[in-house]
Design goal:
The structure holds 3 protein chains of 3 kinds. By secondary structure, chain A is mainly alpha-helical. Chain A is 72% helix and 0% strand. In chain C, the strands form 3 sheets. In chain C, strands 3-4-5-2-1-6-11-8-12-7 form a 10-stranded mixed beta sheet, with helices on both faces. A two-stranded antiparallel sheet of chain C has the order 9-10. Classes of the chains: A mainly alpha, B alpha/beta, C alpha/beta.
Chain lengths: 413, 149, 486
């Protein structure tokens, strides 16, 4: 969004100029007021005024010159940067594919890698893994980049910290995992957020492990005890990709899991499609909190399976007093046996909530021949107009009706 | 009957907005012997380059500014006749299953998520090219002699 | 007697001029620093890529108020339906349209009438019918009696089901990515209730398939000046205030709000021309009075492109409306002025807007008038007067140049060097005529405030959706819009 070179200097320059101008203006006003009240002739004030005009004009010229030259310089620089990036990328790719020309040492004595080189290798690590990825990671460690990032992540200016944390996330270096977990307790929410993301992607790249005090376990503990917003936790869990399963299992197995984390876990399981966790998910089908009930059914719907033990509470929930719970339950009912679901869903074709009607009709249409027949019947002869129209719409979407026939049924021109 | 072209003579087109990914793929292919590789970082140029270059395989990124992978596939779809087998290999960091489904139904023949494994990618490319050449041969055999594709 | 009054007013003028510029400089610097240090370095390309490819977002209801928009409504809705956003719905509210707006919608999207749920969280003009599309289940169309834009938005809110909503202007190009970035902020911060993005003028940009492929500088100086104005307003003004946690304005063209928060505060206020600003001020007020934690912020990254007036007449009417709206919003919430109960807002932001935004054009024009009188009446040496005017103009140029500077540092700045040079030149020319003209118009607007409450005046709608070339300045298709209850 923003060019990050020369801008800091421009800001300082602007600050200086504006600051100076403010003082000059203040001085001018003061002298003017003093001059008038004490009856001094306006000539010295005019002199000051002239001075301020000249200084302002010069400031304008100075800043203008900076900007003009910046345009030319930045154009050139952009091209030069692109070339350098290419060069470094070639070098890194060569190293990744064929191995380093010389063994990489512990990082001491080597001069720092320029920023463009680090950016290049981090981008490459997003693209390639396996043997080549490992070589790049070794090279990073060899140049001491990980140490540099870790140092910067813990001290110094906020923006440098965030840069460093993000770099660690891209590099996915295992040695950075625990320090990142430590940052979950930082005072600033943005630091917490970035380290959660970075820790998650790092964990995802580490070899699978389990048991107490393993990396996944430490991750869980960190999440539970840190003050992270639910959205942040959700993002972190999603970033875990294949490693998320065991961690989510652990979380759900905890009887003292907070409601917030429980909700997040359900959402994540649904989005990641972890079908083998359906049983664990279904446990909260009758949770006192309607949000969690709804989240449970939404998750089951996404997983496409409703375990046997959960059928009864789910069908009961189709009659729940809270409308969004009914909606989710009705949607999930599509994955229950037809004989059980039909009688539960049919009355809700005329539910007071549009969304429940829609969910009920949609689920019926997915319950095989019997379900579609029920919807067709409703489309033709249900006493409630809204129910009829919803049935028609669902049949249309399920390709059981042509658009013209649907229009006809609805009486639309 | 035409001689079997060597796989490494195949023309490969890379479409990815990240310069770094392009260089990476070019070198990987080069190291494996492929010599006819062209690439483009501006997806709007992909169609024109396709017409000019007539690749045997397209390596395509999904999430690109201006024109995304799906749009590019649509453009290419309009250009290839129904009896041509043009393999498109999608390389993307997006792991969502619906994206994979969508890509495969939009015309992609294979799907690899980033970060990818070099050996695996090369294997997939090889398989796709073999299929492509088999297809070409079968088409050539069906055509009366004297005609080149 | 006159002389002493005029003399006294000179002091007032000078003090005002100095304070205005010092404060302006202060907030510009805060804003610029916030951009450079916080925004530019907090979100980088990498994290954006990650978030695009994950499921972290909140679904959005897009509200589209429409009055007699038969020309462009179908195109607008079509391009909205094509937005690259995972989950959203569109609620079109026809505000008593008497033309073919409804008919065209019914035809184009296979609308079928529905009995609508009795949820009426907000009062609105009578809703005649509600339609849903048979082909696009996420499209709702509401046909209601005329009540004005705010009333239509309220009716839309009654229908909306998603946790977030965005009210869309017909002549803005909405970007799915922009919404994604804005919606993500709500996931990360549960206390966030409103987000404003950046607006950049769309004129002369090259549009393909509903997306901007290249930004170009328009040929007219009028439009060029507006580019600078918007850059200044958003990147220094809004950024600064947001950083100071006192953002009072979120543009109607691109703002994302949490639906429950807005409902709690009472929805949009009918009978004011700046319902977007009034809403934000009221949100602040409501949450402060209720003692609930909240956050309203500006983020420069999501960019919305909007068509800006290309002829003097439309510009004049637009600025007239904006300034009257500013006064109305401030007046409605005058209780907040200098009221310590409202913290920074009451003590800094609101007074600033009263004194240095609402009154500024009046003072400016009076300054020029005074200088003229002073020279004429002889108690002001011409040299002094001229120098003073030059100083004022130079200061203005400094501010303009800051805007040109900001445009220089943007990643997606105008690609052609020539365009950027033109913009640089515009910074000098902006304050030699254009600004003074606007100040004059805004002074007139100030005088009209008591008489033209809630009136929109003539507006023209020139839809840009569905077109593959840049919009051309068109003849205004004039309509009077006066809400039913003024």
């Amino acid at each position: 969004m923003w060019r990050r070179y020369g801008d800091a200097f421009y800001t300082l320059l602007t600050l200086a100029v504006f600051g100076f101008e403010s003082i000059a203006l203040g001085g001018l006003s003061l002298s003017f007021l003093l001059g008038r009240t004490t009856g001094i002739a306006s000539t010295p004030v005019e002199g000051i005024l002239l001075g301020v005009v000249i200084s302002t004009a010069s400031a304008l010229a100075l800043l203008g010159l900076y900007l003009l030259s910046y345009h030319f310089v930045s154009n050139l620089r952009d091209r030069w940067q692109a070339d350098r990036l290419d060069q470094w990328t070639e070098w890194w790719v060569g190293l990744a594919l064929t191995g380093p020309d010389e063994p990489v040492d512990g990082g001491s004595g080597r001069h720092r890698l320029p920023r463009v080189a680090v950016d290049s290798v981090l981008s490459l690590l997003e693209a390639v893994k396996g043997e080549e990825g490992d070589r790049l990671k070794e090279a990073l460690a060899g140049h001491g980049v990980d140490q540099r990032f870790l140092r910067r992540a813990h001290a110094g200016h906020l923006t440098a910290r965030l840069d460093a944390i993000e770099g660690l996330g891209k590099a996915r270096l295992p040695q950075a995992f625990d320090p990142l977990l430590g940052l979950f307790h930082h005072a600033k929410p943005v630091v917490r957020r970035m380290s959660a993301r970075a820790a998650a992607v790092t964990l995802a790249a580490m070899p699978p492990d389990s048991g107490p005090d393993s990396p996944p376990d430490r991750f869980i503990q960190a999440i539970k005890h840190a003050e992270l917003q639910p959205g942040v936790v959700q993002e972190a869990l999603l970033l875990l990709e294949t490693r998320a399963g065991p961690i989510l299992r652990e979380l759900l197995a905890d009887p003292e899991l907070s409601d917030g984390l429980h909700w997040v876990a359900l959402e994540t399981i649904g989005r990641l499609g972890l079908a083998d966790m359906a049983d664990q998910v279904a446990v909260s089908s009758d949770h006192p909190d309607p949000e969690l009930r709804a989240a449970t059914f939404r998750c089951l719907r996404r997983l496409g399976s409703v375990p046997e033990g959960a059928e009864a509470p789910l069908l009961h929930a189709v009659d729940d007093e809270v409308d969004f719970v009914r909606v989710q339950a009705a949607h999930a009912a599509a994955f229950v046996t037809a004989e059980a679901a039909l009688p539960a869903l049919e009355p809700h074709l005329e539910d007071s909530s549009w969304w429940v009607r829609r969910a009920a009709a949609a689920s019926l249409a997915r319950l095989g021949e019997l379900g579609v027949a029920t919807v067709r019947r409703a489309a033709e002869s249900h006493p409630d107009k809204a129910a009829r129209e919803m049935a028609v719409q669902i049949l249309l979407e399920a390709d059981e009706l042509t658009p013209s026939a649907a229009r006809l049924a609805m009486g639309v021109a | 009957m035409l001689p079997t072209p060597r796989l490494t003579d195949a023309r490969i087109l890379i479409v990815d907005d990240e310069r770094v990914n392009v260089v990476l793929l070019e070198r990987i292919l080069e190291q494996d012997g492929y010599r006819n590789v062209k690439s483009v970082t501006d997806p709007s140029e992909a169609a024109a380059l396709y017409d000019q270059f007539e690749p045997d395989l397209v390596l395509l990124d999904l999430h690109m500014p201006k024109l995304d992978g799906f749009a590019v596939m649509k453009l290419l779809e309009d250009r290839i006749s129904s009896d041509t087998f043009l393999p498109i290999l999608i390389l993307t960091a997006d792991i969502r299953p619906e994206i994979k489904r969508r890509a495969l139904s939009a015309g992609a023949k294979d799907f690899v998520t980033k970060p990818f494994d070099r050996t695996e990618v090369l294997l997939r490319i090889q398989n796709l090219l073999e299929t492509r050449f088999l297809h070409l041969r079968a088409r050539n055999d069906a055509v009366p002699e004297g005609r080149a594709t | 007697m006159w002389r002493t009054l005029l003399n006294g007013y000179q002091y007032v003028l000078l003090v005002y001029f100095s304070s205005l510029n010092v404060l302006y400089a202060l907030f510009s610097c805060i804003g610029l620093r916030a951009i450079v240090v916080v925004f530019a370095r907090e979100f980088s390309q990498g994290s954006l890529r990650d978030l695009l490819e994950r499921d972290v977002y909140k679904p959005v209801s897009i509200l589209v108020p429409a009055h007699n928009e038969e020309v462009s409504i179908v195109g607008s809705v079509q391009s909205l339906l094509a937005l690259q956003f995972p989950e959203f719905e569109i609620v079109v509210v026809s505000d008593g349209s008497e033309d073919e707006t409804m008919a065209r919608l019914v035809e184009a999207f296979a609308l079928a009438e529905q009995p609508w749920a009795t949820r009426q969280d907000l009062p609105s003009a009578h809703v005649r019918r509600v339609f849903r599309s048979l082909t696009h289940p996420n499209l709702i169309v509401v046909d209601k009696e005329q009540g004005g834009k705010a009333d239509s938005l309220n009716a839309g809110l009654n229908m909306a089901r998603y946790p977030l909503f965005a009210a869309v202007d017909a002549d803005s190009l909405l970007d799915g990515e922009a919404i994604l970035r804005a919606s993500r902020l709500f996931v990360e911060d549960e206390t966030l209730i409103g987000v404003g993005g950046t607006i950049r003028p769309l004129n002369a940009a090259v549009i393909e398939d509903g997306r901007i492929t290249e930004a170009r500088i328009p040929k007219k100086w009028l439009e060029r000046f507006q580019i600078l104005e918007y850059a200044r307003a958003f990147f220094t003004g809004r950024a600064g205030w947001s950083h100071f946690k006192s953002l009072l304005i979120i543009s109607g063209a691109f703002g994302l709000f949490r639906r429950t928060a807005v409902l709690e505060a009472g929805g949009f206020r009918v009978g004011t021309v700046a319902e977007d600003m009034e809403l934000v001020v009221r949100l602040h007020r409501h949450f402060i009075e209720e003692g609930k934690p909240y956050n309203i912020r500006f983020t420069p990254d999501p960019i919305c492109w909007s068509e800006v007036p290309s002829d003097l007449g439309t510009l004049r009417r637009q600025r007239n409306r904006w300034h009257r709206g500013l006064w109305e919003a401030l007046w409605i919430h005058k209780r907040m002025l200098f009221n310590p109960r409202y913290g920074r807002l009451g003590l800094v932001a609101v007074p600033y807007f009263w004194i240095f935004e609402a009154l500024a054009p009046v003072v400016e024009i009076s300054g020029y008038v005074l200088v003229g009188i002073g020279i004429f009446a002889g108690f002001l040496s011409p040299r002094f007067a001229i120098l003073f005017v030059i100083l004022a103009v130079l200061y203005g140029m400094l501010a303009s140049q800051l805007a040109a500077g900001i445009e220089t540092f943007l990643s997606n700045r105008y690609p052609r060097l020539r365009d950027r040079a033109v913009l640089f030149l515009a910074a000098f020319l902006e304050f030699v005529g254009y600004r003074q003209y606007l100040a004059f118009q805004r002074t007139i607007a100030t005088a009209q405030v008591p008489f033209k409450r809630g009136q929109w005046g003539k507006m023209h709608r020139k839809g840009i959706r569905g077109s593959t070339q840049a919009p051309t300045p068109a003849d205004p298709a004039e309509e009077e819009r006066t809400p039913a209850n003024v």
